[in-house]
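DM from R.C. (forwarded with permission)

"hey, sorry to bug you on a friday — could you get me a structure for this? deadline for the figure draft is monday and I only need the backbone to look sensible"
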Amino acid sequence: MTSVFERELLVVTGKGGVGKTTVSAIVGLLGAREGKRVVVVELGEQGRLAHLFGQPKPELGAELRLDENLWSISIDPDRALLEWLQSIGGALAGRVLGSSTTFQYFAAAAPGAKELVSMVKVWELSQSARWRRRARSYDLVVLDAPATGHALAMLHSPQTFGAIARVGPIAGQTRQVKQLLADRRRSGYLAVAHASEMAVSEALEIQDGLVRQLDRELEAVIVNGVLPRRFTEPELRRVAALNGGARGDRAPRAASVTARRGRGRTAGATATAPARDAELRRAAAYAARSVHERARRQHNEVARLRRRELRVVSVPFVFAPELDLALLRRLTDQVARKL
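My reply, with the result:
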């Protein structure tokens, strides 16, 4: 199979809140390690990548260098529209048309217009001849796309808008974007999911939507925050034995009244030590069983993806208060062995 990093465009999407931006950053770093000149594209006033890499939030539309061979840009559709018009009709004509109330109304009301403008800007980043004369092109564009439904609408926008504008330079560039999205050698699609029922269902929805709209399939589903299976069934039985044979499925009860009343008295403290030990054993058994059950449910959801013959790349759950650059690089090292 051709490496995903041989593409010109990689689209990263999935359910909201599953870590699309983190995965986009990982994919961007991996592409840069391959020697590619990579840009990771955010939409709207995001700037999360700049913060992650310790950079000040850039101006909308500015291409910010994050790392060796790695840049980011946050696309503003209004600014991208003005750049597009200027590239087609010249600076003066573009400004006149872009400031026209009638045209602005059309651009806001036309089906898929805003989404198309963003997609055209994504396409432009990969072109050898950029809209700005001195701007360099990129070998790989990684699009941190919106959540599933909006992302599929964006990918469908060239077809939607193409039904309105059928001739002229706008129609011509719309067709070029459509060709990029449909070409298996030039573009690829990655879904990001948590190992939960809803997130996995959305990943499968993306797969079905790509087949229906573009006759394409996902390159991989990147499952974020996967817990390891820490215990075998024999080990769980040993844990249960420590808890007097209980399976540890229920949360431990509060300390007994006797234990609470015994605090502060030497005799009471001695008398309630076994009770406290029993509470600790119950708490440990409950924690072990809970983590095991959560991991089991996650792996069952991953199995749903595999049954659809989708390639699955797992990213381990990270026990850290927040994601920083050092942790991002460690995750990148782990994903590099799988993607």
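R.C.: lifesaver. The CA atoms of residues 248 and 286 lie 4 Å apart.
me: no worries. The chain has two domains: 4-227+317-336, 233-295.
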